[in-house]
């Protein structure tokens, strides 16, 4: 049985509030892009990988070890994270090192984890 949420009386309408809320909405394109980005972060393995990268830059082998997955699986996940511009990389010889793309990703992770731990 679900509890009913409070609602306005039948004739209760706030057209100014609705107009203000609608004006504040992001574009459909922005909503879809942000939704895809949040889905990419929502996977537990990818979240572990991003958290590890928040601590320091890591090569694929070390990142796979930290995340507890194979190098092949790590590479697959990193392709998705790169596609969403969540991670960047640099090559040193034949070794590829990954890092968080920018401060936005760092803040997103910090805020999500802090919010999840609040009670």
UniProtKB/TrEMBL annotation:
Keyword terms, alphabetized: DNA-binding, Transcription, Transcription regulation
Domain of life: Bacteria
Pfam families (alphabetical): HTH_5
DNA-binding listed as a keyword: yes
InterPro entries membership: ArsR-like_HTH, ArsR_HTH, HTH_ArsR_DNA-bd_dom, Metal_resp_trans_reg, WH-like_DNA-bd_sf, WH_DNA-bd_sf
Signal peptide annotation: none
Domain called HTH arsR-type: residue spans: 26-119
Gene3D superfamilies on file: Winged helix-like DNA-binding domain superfamily/Winged helix DNA-binding domain
Stated name of the protein: Transcriptional regulator
Species in which this protein is naturally found: Deinococcus radiotolerans
């Amino acid at each position: 049985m679900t509890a009913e949420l409070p609602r306005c009386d039948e004739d209760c309408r706030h057209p100014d509030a609705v107009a203000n809320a609608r004006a504040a909405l992001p574009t459909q394109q922005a909503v879809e892009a942000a939704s895809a980005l949040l889905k990419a972060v929502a996977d537990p393995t990818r979240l572990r990988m991003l958290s590890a990268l928040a601590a320091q830059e890591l090569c694929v082998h070390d990142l796979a070890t930290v995340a507890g997955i194979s190098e092949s699986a790590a590479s697959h996940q990193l392709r998705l994270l790169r596609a969403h511009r969540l991670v960047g990389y640099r090559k040193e010889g034949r070794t590829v090192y990954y890092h968080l793309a920018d401060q936005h990703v760092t803040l997103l992770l910090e805020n999500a984890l802090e919010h999840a731990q609040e009670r």
